[in-house]
Model the fold of this input.
Amino acid sequence: MPDNFLGTPATAPGPMGPEMLKNFALIRRNPLEYLFKTWRSYGDVVQFPVPKPPSYLVNSASGVRHVLVNNAKNYDKSTIQYKALSLVTGTGLLTADTELWRTRRPIIQPAFHKKALDELIPVTKAAADRILATIDAKATGTVTDLDPFMLASALEVVGEFLFGSDLTHDAHQITSATLDALEVVIKRARVPLSPPQSIPTPGNRVLKRSLSTLNGAVDSIVGTRSATPFNEDLIKDSKSTRNLVDYLLDASSESKIDRDGIRDEIVTFIIAGHETVASALSWSLALLAAHPEIQSAVASEAQYANGDELDSRLSQLPYTQAVFNETLRLYPPAWLITRKSLGGDSIDGYEIPSGALVITSPALLHRHPDIWSDPDSFKPDRFLGSYPRESFIPFGAGLRQCIGKDFAYVEGVITLAALCERIEFSYPPGHGVPASDPLVTIRPVGGVKLRANRRS
Ligand code: HEM
Done:
């Protein structure tokens, strides 16, 4: 194949330089739409006309699996996506390179054990009750933007379950700081050159303010837990009340992590643990409001489910879980998963040079017509039987798969069930499912403004 831009050898089909430049505005406004457009024009492995680094989009079931699972050792996370994110999170589990990740994951994993997750159920139910109390306090039929409720509630759950901290009073401040910081990060990731953080541009000022809010939250979380540490003597028969902060503090006393490392992990979990689940919940409600018959089925399933044991509770809510899955298929919050190739490789027969940026996207793979029938329709039933598991990757795949996957299912499914059991959500006349904006997660443009009526 000929060179496709500034002497970059073309090893896969893709647009030429002038065509990509013509799409510059779209790339900045909606990079996900641009990825869809490029994939539809050029196929499952696409090379962009970018010299440094050579950049590829991979969207076949086999190609994505190859990068994330089968040949994962040839790929790391030093990409523009994760470098930009690390301006906020530092080097926590999500952005860490493989070497650091190997030391951190064992420290953190116990906070997500099944026994610990049993305790997430009452925490989630209490958070859902707080949302219901606020909605109930409004006049019947009032239109409410539910997205901020989902963000605040998801943050409160992370605060209580992972940090043992009550974040209810600071939730708004922390969720705003998170969204503001991530917006700056996204803008930086979308342009090739950004001014250094030391120059007080408007973006850098917002970032500085947001970081100071997040760091303040970390200080208060660590301070609270250090003052009232987990007490083994008080809870002899249960290890499960030990939370993420306890495990981090334990590791610090054994010099396995330093103060900056603890800060970076807590900010990572604030961000990765709440915005993702909130996005999934907001889109679930947006889709359910557009499909009243599916919403009624969730409501009646919720009425019959009870019990606090994780397994029994989730196994009593198979349809709600299918709804949550179908939402994650259509609007996967983490819509972009990027890697850098460490050595040369071949994907689906196309040569990938060493040092290349490889872009994969659950949002694209989940709408691949060779894998999913009627891929753009909301059909939760497809998750009740067998489905193409290897091509359903809202939580990634392979070693770096999301540590919070089970956490997200418990919180997502139980919150949905609790809300739909009590409230019927609908759109005001003339409104429907909002447009999507692919920021760090896929956000609903203008929020999710729904009419809430108490179920009789
Ligand atoms: C619906 C909710 C969620 C979605 C869609 C989601 C998605 C993802 C994805 C796709 C990855 C892999 C990224 C990659 O391979 O480059 C990931 C990793 C991660 N997620 Fe989640 N996540 C969700 C919820 C959570 C929750 C609730 C937490 C924590 C409480 C969390 C914490 C993390 C962390 C720390 C990582 C890095 C894991 C590692 O590399 O070991 N996520 N997530």
About this structure: The chain is about 50% helix and 10% strand.
